[in-house]
Amino acid sequence: MTDHATAPLLCVRGLTTTLRTDTSEFDAVSDVSITIGRGEAVALVGESGCGKSLTALSLMRLLPSVARLSPPTSVTFDGVDLATQDDAEMRKARGRKMAMIFQDPLTFLNPVMRIGDQVTEAIRVHNVLTKAEASQLALESLERVRITAPAQVMRYYPHQLSGGMRQRILIAMAISCKPELLIADEPTTALDVTIQAQIMDLLADLRRELGSSMLLITHDMGLVAEYVDRVYVMYAGEIVEEASVFDLFAAPKHPYTQALLKSSLSVDRRTEVFETIAGVPPNLANAPKGCRFHPRCPVAIERCAREHPGFTDMGNAQRARCLLLEEGA
Amino acid sequence: MTGTRLLLYALRRLLQAVPMIVIILIVNFFLIHSAPGDPVDVLTGSMETSEEYIAELRAEFGLDKPLVQQLGIYLWKAAHFDLGYSMRYRQDVTGLILSRLPATLLLMGTALVFSSFLGIMLGVFAARRPYSLSDNAVTFIALAGYSMPVFWLGQILLLIFAVQLQWFPVQGMFSLRVPSHGWARFADLMHHLALPAITYSVYHLTLIYRLTRVKMQETLTLDFCTTARAKGLSEASVVRRHALPNAMLPVVTVIGLNFGFMLAGSVLTETVFAWPGTGRLLYEAINARDYPVLLGLFTFLSLMVILANVLTDIIYALIDPRVTYS
User: Fold this and answer.
1) CATH top-level class for A10-97+179-327?
2) Tens digit of pLDDT for each residue in A261-305?
3) Which one of A45, A79, A174, B99 is separated from A96 by 20 to 30 angstroms, measured CA to CA?
């Protein structure tokens, strides 16, 4: 109990998620280790299809039937390994200890259920309350996400709301039980740019109010720079670099991270032509041997095609999976 | 507010059904006139008749009037629920149909409720364990049931359960010696109802089962079910509160549309089990060339199908908030 306050909230080690298709089985997420401290905001970035969302679903154990967790996965949340818990215990953790905010606010809301019922349900599943009490708490949740006229919105159906409003509803449901960890899976991808900033600011404020930690899953480097403390970069199902947000932007170590930063637009780097990463992410059912990035890597050496790189510690809690770092280049 | 809007919506849908009914009546009218033979010939038969008498008869039945005027008279009478007179039963057609209606409604209502309820239950059961042994077993039985002709199934059931095992009566709605009222009469009715109701249900049940299974399986993979699970809901709650109400939308439509098919199916079932309803009346009318009854039934059955469709629309509007009433 002594290390309760100092121990990290979430400690993921060796997270491996296996996908089964008609013809093959492969690890779509392999050996992912993520640590999130109490009150810390951490980002998981990478291209589409790199396994970010699958990682989030793995943490919540909400995987589709074709996917399963494989050894040596351990997901220690507040001292308890969620990966080995039975389903009933896991259900108690979902929504109460860790809550998730999803990408597309339209499809993630039940179209034939009133907003009020959907938010109230999130509260009642974890608390023994009367309908009126839960309804009052739901109203407070809507107020907290700055919904105007919340009592009226409670009676609406999802199709009667705008995209930004729907995302606020999803956030209201996620924070309704004051979870210790918020997992936000591309929470602003489906929204207009002006609404994006509002939603991200709201998330930052709520996190401060509740003292929650956050795992932000995104491909938007602009959001990363502004809203998180530490970053994990993911490529082809594995973490390739881990650093504080300052170190990552100042001195990215992995060639993939460097390419990713170059390919995102920046106001203070007035480039006329912005760079793209050549090639496409590999098909994981048939992942490249050696370093998974080597076929697209501009600085790959002969060793990269043979050896799968481990992490090289760069000091200051920054590390990256690159053989060049090992060679001291 | 919503209540008034829904009522207005229902009224408008009913009004929209009126032109449809008129079109059906007109089609039925021309069906009579395109049928071979002159009604007067049928009336006089082989009797020697004078030209004057025939003209008199024509005048009496309004057959000397222009076709358009005859159509007007026909529509006017139909609007007053006068569908003509049956020579065979010596009764007006409307009264005849109404006297046969309760038997059909009882059989059909029982079958519709039973098959929809069981079909949905089995569909949900199978969707929660897709491609398992129990799912495959239910699906196999359903496919067999779906492929069976109603009259064949009815006769097989009769042979096994009524003739061989003698668990159920062979035909009719009541036994010959039966108490005129009370629970005993009700029990006798249920005893007679069982086999025809099961026969009548099989096709509809398998249809609803298959549709529910597919829709449920699909809905359970949708994003809002993931949200529900992320809230910490049990799988049973996700099914009951989120997946089922959404998966039921197309099922409700099909149940409503099937009303028409079930009316048509009542001819076979009622004939096999000698059930005294409108289906058997239709069969008897065909055999007796009783045109007024036949056409009266066509009109009446079309009316029922239209009403069922309007009712389906209203129920759909009630369960899907995305349907706009305006």
Assistant:
1) alpha beta
2) 888 765 555 555 666 777 777 777 778 888 999 888 888 888 888
3) A45
